[in-house]
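Researcher: I'd like a candidate sequence for this fold, 111 residues long. If you have to choose between options at a position, lean toward the conservative one.
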């Protein structure tokens, strides 16, 4: 599916831990992750993203939905990067196949 649609993942994204679904308990990302579908942080849960982590995402999960990180009302996100160890959100595609806009669904904070 990915190669048929010119969606070849970069080596970095392919080597990252894959995340998909709902995070219903406190979770810490201390190494790179790839969003393969929409990821929801549920009410009462905290997602901590450590400095230096890169969050990659596909432009499409195979069913037409763009993977995104969605912080639901009542959930918390704690992300403290720095100039020397930034937290980066980006497409997981290679530079050869990453063209234009809409390469992942984004970061959505609902409250």
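Model: Candidate sequence:
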């Amino acid at each position: 599916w990915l190669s048929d649609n010119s969606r070849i993942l970069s080596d970095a994204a392919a080597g990252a831990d894959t995340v998909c679904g709902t995070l219903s308990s406190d979770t810490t990302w201390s190494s790179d992750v790839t969003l393969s579908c929409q990821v929801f942080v549920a009410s009462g849960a905290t997602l901590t993203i450590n400095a230096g982590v890169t969050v990659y995402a596909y432009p499409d999960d195979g069913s037409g939905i763009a993977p995104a990180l969605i912080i639901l009302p009542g959930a918390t996100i704690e992300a403290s990067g720095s100039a020397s160890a930034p937290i980066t959100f980006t497409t997981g595609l290679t530079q050869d196949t990453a063209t234009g806009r809409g390469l992942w669904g984004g970061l959505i904070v609902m409250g």
